[in-house]
Amino acid sequence: MASGVKPRVKVPKSAAAGDVITIKTLISHPMESGQRKDGDGNIIPRSIINRFTCDFNGQSVVDVTLEAAISTNPYVEFDATVPEAGEFKFTWYDDDGSVYEDSKPIEIG
Prior knowledge:
This protein has 109 residues and is mainly β.
């Protein structure tokens, strides 16, 4: 994982089968536009999170394309139905080829 890039995810520990829960995600990322220059006048390469996905037990829940105007440290919040116990897998894709992942289990209770 690149220096300073850190995903954070908030998922309830448990829910009843069929419940709709709110999932909150944030990734600390500088989101370089490719238009700024460093102290020596060299262009800083573009590096933005361009896609975010969430799967639950292998099934797609969310697949979002992010554009260059997205802010630093992008925050994504969404609702998901929990059909059974399992695991949410979160993936952020960076222009520079980096992939950042996190996962959170949820129990039925």
